């Protein structure tokens, strides 16, 4: 038998060489297919789509829960050159309608639990499929149950297999959906899957070594990149339906999880568990846990490293493209860094006029592919142009490169607070306040101030069992003043039952800010 490093990698080749290898070891539905079974299911869906006339470049949108079906439909669409849109199941009916209309999706696939989100939004899609419904079951007008769609379709590979791709709809924190598209290259799907294996190995995802934990929303591009990186090196997936701090630890122990993708809010929630709960579970199998999507408070990451060891990797970039990687030991040498530029990419720090800034000077972070390839926002040339300077693009962050070329992110440009002409970066303040024992989550924003322009406000979600009070608000302010320069500290603290975040863990600050700026007649 070949050594694992010498084997052909990628789901399609693994299914040929080791069809009995487990592909999923845990899922909310209880389904645990092997690689052979997973690939046969994908082939059957691909053949059904072909039978309904779907061809190269056509668009399929799906809204599916964290489970096996999301992977099957993703593999099926990409092996026949389609573009898939993985919809966030938390979206409203109006948001679904906007994306379906904007994308021109020819097929809509949804779970029977989400049918209420599509009262009349599916009319533009020629094919509408319900997953989780039995064959012959009555479905809403215009929909077909998945078993009926698949009836009679072969589980063998479809003809003329060419690699497809996603359309990533990312509203981020702006509220306006953006469909990010790149040119299709028509590669063989097996070669594309092998490329994803190379991606996984770059983060020390070792072939056939343990399992990969899926604990964030599977519609999210970051989550998808890393579970595909793991699956394509032969690591089976342990899928959680939703994140629960203790269940996450239990799953790591039960399935000897070696790799995972997480977001910083998950770290915070696990660190808030009582010590006796944290100590109950063995997490020593972990080798590589990648986080991205939102800034991780410095102390939170230090505490996670102390608990789990030097296994936490960091990436910086966005749905539009990856930029940097910080390996665990390098991060410990340079705490707070988002890492150095990955191969094939360049990071530039520019001023508002587009001039390149020297080391250690904060400016706008721009990312550029060295091959000059650009993405575009679907059907939005103006937005595409607004984020590009030549081939370089920005996702709206402020930061700097140190003398060794390591990137440090300060904050989102639009979230920066300017008080009395001084720039204040809320992420730094949030990182400090989040370590207060009563703080479960925190958003720092600028609110109107007649003298200073803006003043710093902290909006706090408390840990369970803690009651808000003026005394606690003052204690949180004092906690910040003991650890930060006075001008950075909040002048006041408000309490909220829950702070709005995207599935990727980013605070939706526009929603928080609206409360305080509604009557100001200005937004900054």
UniProtKB/TrEMBL annotation:
Residue ranges of coiled coil: none
Occurrences of domain AMP-binding enzyme C-terminal (ranges): 428-506
Region (Disordered): 149-184
Limits of the AMP-dependent synthetase/ligase domain: 13-368
Pfam families listed in its UniProt record: AMP-binding, AMP-binding_C
Keywords: Ligase
Gene3D superfamilies: 3.30.300.30, N-terminal domain of ligase-like (3.40.50.12780)
Domain of life: Bacteria
PANTHER family: ACYL-COA SYNTHETASE, MEDIUM-CHAIN ACYL-COA LIGASE ACSF2, MITOCHONDRIAL
Family (UniProt): Belongs to the ATP-dependent AMP-binding enzyme family.
Protein name (record): AMP-binding protein
Species assigned in the record: [Mycobacterium] nativiensis
